[in-house]
Amino acid sequence: MGRDLAEASSEAMNLWKQAERISGLPLREIYWEDDEAAMSDTRALQPALTVVNCNLWREAAGRVSPCGAAGHSLGEFSALAAAGVLSPENVLEITALRGRLMAEADPEGNGGMAALLKLDEPRVAEIVAEAAAESGEMLLTANYNTPAQLVVSGAKSAVALACRKAKERKGRGIELKVSGAFHSPMMEEANKELAPLLRKAVWRKPRFPVYCNQHGKAVHDGESARESLLRQMVSPVRWIETVRNQYANGARFWLELGPKAVLGKMVAPCLNGIAVGSDALRVELVSTLESLTAFSL
Asked: How confident is the model at residue 37, as a pLDDT?
């Protein structure tokens, strides 16, 4: 992950080394030698993904003139770096600490998450309410990814019950391989511990708007971005609203930077019934040095 670009660019390689110093982890060894167990550990994954995203952006930046940026959950920090709100060093410090805090937030493994598919928001809300009431445990909708792909987060028993209820309603429930109930109140202590570093960071005016997960709207100053990020870890990711607000503000081309296609696939479902038929929507992924070289507007 990200090796080809690092071996072709000393700047990209130096960002990997900086991330290793900050995190205290051998990130290149983990992700370049495919250490499967270590790769899934959010303590390593968060700074490593941030390095990949930031390196891809640095190489692509001169070819595009963004009307805005956004990132899903962890990716929001890369979007802020791309817009110049936070420095790459600040972002690496934040994501390394965020990864460690989230990994340690639920040592007994009481929390979990699941994607509920093929069900609309009202039906998922019904499932969440029923599963929480019947289990007596906390459960909420944590990620509004597309109108038919929502993620619930909470106590494992409630998450499992929600999956069964989704199947009863002709939907699908897929429990996710995560170490906790992210974007829920179960991350409150981790969120509090991250706050001092967020407040200490230097937040600058963005070069272009950044759409925040907490409300899906664009922010145009560093202070507003900081206030949103102070609650991001315990708030839902409102990705549907993010994409729709980008479209309403004129976006017709989405460029996804990252190791694999995830968010680009969500654009069309989010805009179904909203985008005008005559609009030529375009989505592209840049994930490697080869795809970056081939990319053109």
From this structure: 81
